[in-house]
Design goal:
55% of the residues lie in helices and 5% in strands. The chain is built from 13 helices and 3 strands; from the N terminus they run βαβααβαααααααααα. The chain has 2 domains: 210 residues, 3-Layer(aba) Sandwich (Rossmann fold); 89 residues, Tyrosyl-Transfer RNA Synthetase, CATH 1.10.240.10. With 332 residues, it is mainly alpha-helical. A 3-stranded parallel beta sheet has the order 1-2-3. Bound molecules: adenosine monophosphate (AMP) and tryptophan. The site of adenosine monophosphate has 14 residues, from helix 1. Keywords: Aminoacyl-tRNA synthetase, ATP-binding, Ligase, Nucleotide-binding, Protein biosynthesis. Its EC number is 6.1.1.2. It comes from freshwater metagenome.
Length: 332
């Protein structure tokens, strides 16, 4: 039996992924590489819907690639590529725009949130058409599964609707992907404000553990994490959100169950506990960070890896696009 196809994408919008991105998404992508035909895309065109800074876009695209590889996305097992290197994304994106309704696109909550933040006059058209480009990202690869976080559920629903509509109207063209919302088992909270999720946009600098930050800086952030009243090391998200978050982080990286950690730290103080968590994080990130830095040190080889992925992606994408054009009556 052939393997199921997986496709997901991540925007190159920061110099470093944070621990939440890793545990909430990328780690699960790594696991899906085995037993699936995985395509992972750095969606640089989507990143253009935010602030456009040419030097930063380039730097962050390469940094994202280096980090994904260092975190375990293997360019041999998976097809790792940059969206803009596969022009079929824009081409199918247009076709999706031509079958999507203005009303349904207007109902996308990510668009509503981001455009209201930007203000009606500064929101750009690309932000509005973003979900149709995302649908193209997915449908070009005939993906069975699209592992994404809960926040992307509506975009995947739209993708399914657009695929179904196209197939019904113009003949079988796209696979309608399953819903595949990543399990939020490891939801990581801000170290300074454990009521909020760890996030590069809203979080405090001191509350976010960045993969590319120095090991010393990350150790310091853990040692100065907000703790809770009382002195017990117990998992209790309501009463002890800070300690619970640190237990989650330790357990996710060490593989030791939280209940075992509670026993191990019985009678110990918060200070000792935080030192141990800091060590676990530092030792986990040490080889990852140095692998990423090494990849970034040889930009040409890194770009070569992305070119190989891009060529594989174009192969698959162009046959889907051809079929879509043919079914639409476009002369080829
Ligand atoms: P973002 O770039 O912030 O949209 O994050 C990309 C993906 O990383 C999300 O769709 C989530 O799956 C995951 N993620 C981000 N922040 C966290 C977090 N604090 N805890 C767990 N997963 C997260
Ligand atoms: N919109 C997604 C996000 O913000 C990123 C993305 C773009 C994506 N294209 C995709 C995710 C295709 C999955 C599949 O996280």
């Amino acid at each position: 039996m052939t393997q199921k196809r997986v496709l997901s994408g991540i925007q190159p919008t920061s110099d470093s992924f944070h621990l939440g991105n890793y545990l909430g998404a990328v780690k699960q992508w790594v696991e899906l590489q085995d037993g699936h035909d995985a395509f992972y895309c750095i969606v640089d065109l989507h990143a253009l819907t935010g602030e456009i800074e040419p030097a930063l876009l380039r730097k962050r695209t390469l940094a994202s690639a280096a980090q994904l590889i260092a975190l375990g996305i293997s360019p041999e097992k998976s097809t790792l590529f940059v969206q803009s290197q596969v022009p079929q994304h824009n081409q199918l994106g247009w076709l999706m725009e031509c079958i999507a309704g203005f009303g349904e696109a207007s109902r996308m909550t990510q668009f509503k949130d981001k455009s209201s933040k930007a203000g009606a006059d500064s929101a750009r058209v690309g932000l509005f058409t973003y979900p149709m480009l995302q649908a193209a990202d997915i449908l070009l690869y005939q993906a069975h599964l699209v592992p994404v976080g809960e926040d992307q559920r509506q975009h995947i629903e739209l993708t399914r609707d657009l695929a179904g509509r196209f197939n019904t109207r113009f003949g079988e063209t796209f696979r309608v992907p399953d819903n595949f919302i990543l399990k939020t088992a490891a939801k990581i909270q801000d170290l300074q404000d454990p009521a909020a999720k760890m996030s590069k946009s809203s979080g405090s600098v001191a509350g976010v553990l960045e993969i590319m930050d120095t090991l010393e800086a990350n150790a310091k952030k853990i040692k100065s994490a907000t703790t809770d009243a009382g002195r017990e090391i117990k998992f209790d998200e309501k009463e002890k959100p800070g300690i619970s978050n640190l237990l989650t982080i330790h357990s996710a990286l060490s593989g030791v169950a939280i209940e075992k950690l509670e026993v191990e730290f019985e009678g110990k103080g918060y200070g000792d506990f935080k030192s141990v968590v800091a060590d676990v994080v530092v030792e986990y990130l040490r080889p990852i960070r140095s692998a990423a830095l090494e990849l970034l040190d040889d930009e040409k080889s890194l770009i070569d890896i992305l070119h190989v992925g891009g060529a594989k992606a174009r192969d698959v994408a162009s046959s889907t696009l051809d079929l879509a054009y043919k079914n639409l009556g476009v002369v080829r």
